[in-house]
Amino acid sequence: MFEAFIARRPCVTLGVMRILVIEDEVRLAEYLRKGLSENAYVVDVTHDGIDGRHMALEGEYDLVLLDVMLPGIDGFGVLRDLRARKQTPVLMLTARDKVEDRVQGLKGGADDYLVKPFAFSELLARVEALLRRGSSVSAQASTLMRLGDLEVDLARRKVTRAGKRLDLTPKEFGLLTLLMRRRGEVLSRTVLAEQVWDLHFDSETNVIDVAVRRLRAKLDEGFETPLLHTVRGVGYVLEVRE
């Protein structure tokens, strides 16, 4: 049986790994969306092969989770058309545990194959392995962001400041990544709510302020130079100030 559902869907943000889920079983699709988003991935979901093929071809994704049995066009057809244009890593999902199905998928260009039902922990491990495998040295370098003595390694999901590792939750990591990608730019609470939490902002909600306060405690306390600043009445900015 599948494990319990986890968290909510995020919107697209810069600097976070993006995953496309093409799965016609709504319950499973939501399970994947929630679990992956709780691990700070940006997740888009579609429930049929035609829309999935369009999104995979036209969007910029780091990984595609692709069901075999889909309405419109099946997973093998989506994979074939995707491989004609892109080399995006693909993890195929199927309820059919037949050797010939796995062989067909792998020969068609799938990078891995997972049979339902599966534990989320196994799927997450396979996702992380595929993302690591698909990262070249140059790609890994592009996922390393620095600001002063702060370093964010997107590929390894590791944050350090002055050589000290910072222990961040997935949401804190997503929030910091967004601020790092747009460092020097003041981001409103509305933008943070939509980009990190997929919330339509409610002025009575203090989730953003609480999250920023917790991130600031880990990021700045004990260090000489603060990096996360509040611009009163506007929002928050990550920058080095003289």
Oligomer: single chain
Largest beta-sheet details: 5 strands, parallel
**C-alpha Rg, in Å?**
19 Å
Q: Which regions are unreliable across 5 or more consecutive residues at pLDDT < 50?
A: 1-15, 136-141
The CA-CA distance between the termini, in Å, is 55 Å
Query: Strand sequence of the main sheet, in spatial order?
Result: 2-1-3-4-5
The share of residues in helices is 25-40%
Mean of residue pLDDT values: 84
Strand share of the residues? Answer: 15-25%
Q: How many E strands?
A: 11
The 3D shape can be described as elongated
N-to-C SSE string, H for helix and E for strand: EHEHEHEHEHHEEEEHHHEE
Q: What features would you describe in this structure?
A:
The chain has 242 residues and is α/β, with parallel strands linked by helices. The chain is built from 9 helices and 11 strands. It has helices at 26-38, 49-58, 75-83, 99-107, 120-133, 137-142, 170-181, 189-197, 207-220; strands at residues 18-22, 42-46, 63-67, 90-94, 112-115, 144-147, 150-153, 158-161, 164-165, 228-231, 235-238. The strands form 3 sheets. The chain has a 5-stranded parallel sheet, sandwiched between helices. A 4-stranded antiparallel sheet has the order 6-7-8-9. A hairpin with a 2-residue loop joins strand 6 (144-147) and strand 7. Helix 2 (49-58) packs parallel to helix 3 and helix 7 crosses helix 8 (189-197). The longest helix has 14 residues, at 120-133. The radius of gyration is 19 Å and the shape is elongated. It starts with 17 loop residues before the first strand and ends with a strand. Mean pLDDT is 84; it is low at 1-15 and 136-141. The modification 4-aspartylphosphate is found at residue 67. It comes from Roseateles asaccharophilus.
